[in-house]
Amino acid sequence: MNPLLNQLQPYPFARLREAMQGLDAPAGITPVPLHIGEPKHATPKVITDALTASLSELEKYPLSAGLPELRQSCADWAARRYDGLQLNPDTEILPVLGSREALFAFAQVVLDPTSDGKDIVVSPNPFYQIYEGAALLGGAKIRFADCHAPDFLPDWSQIDAETWQRTKLVFVCSPNNPSGSVMQLEHWAALFALQDRYGFVIASDECYSEIYFSGNKPIGGLQAAAELGRGNKGIVMFTSLSKRSNVPGLRSGFAAGDAALLKAFLLYRTYHGSAMSVPVQRASIAAWNDETHVAENRRLYQEKFDKVVPILQQAFDVQMPDASFYIWLKVPDGDDLAFAKTLWQKAAIQVLPGRFLARDTEHGNAGAGYVRIALVAGAAECVQAAETMVALYPR
User: 286: burial class by Cβ within 10 Å (0-12, 13-18, 19+)?
Assistant: First the structure.
């Protein structure tokens, strides 16, 4: 067995299940699952129609590089979304099976497995656990930059110069999971300055980029680089249809950016056997070409946030996120696990303790004292859950 597997920690939801063992919800109450970020809005018909219309193409072996039409639709979408961002569909776009597998696989391309643990990956904290698994199974060490109030963005100053000198890869997540915070142009400029000094690669996880509010479109990493006149050398952006288009089961997204990195990534993926089936590619083309369903998706989330946040503010220190479908709620007594247990035992409401999304560092656990609430259930369910939380924890 690969000994590096022993370094992997249980996923947050496995830790939550273990913590809840022996704790029962009240009888007769239907559970309200707000702990998992799985979209529940209906899959758009434009996507399902394209998928079913192309099922005859299952007889074809797909290419790892994807259909030229898909790469072009991704490039066209990026140009529309990111203020004219120009990407070469032949060299700077690569279809992937959702951002999760691509983020993991990309680290295996960047890291040196013969470095005997000398390579370092830097990650936000709290973070998406794939970053950690990718680093450890790539033979690297992982170091964390904590995200604290008020902006919940990574504090890069926590990483010392010696660590930066060994850093090969930096994961960023904007909009952030779990806080929904968004890096602005000045934050990107600060990270690019560190990249220029130390020469690491940036993997920009942007899978929540299309769930934003009041027209405030989050800036992307490649867009920021273009606006700062630096090109995309050393930067790869990862995005997905899962949240944008409510198709987490489609497993479709794309990576974009540095052509040299994507050339190596394509070589890796060719051996990895991660080509996207042709019907999924056809459905993806339809999805990237259509914005009507995306606008409706944002409207549904906006409606939920507009109703839920004011209710929660009656009892909790909580703000509207910049983007994403998460609420990063500060619990009254600082014990996020006890808070989650109480909600489950008294009201069958499931939320995710922040400590399970973070790692302990010399500065403590950056997720402790918060819970992540995913507003993926229906509006009525979300409102009722918020009202119940306020009733259980009156200010």
Answer: buried
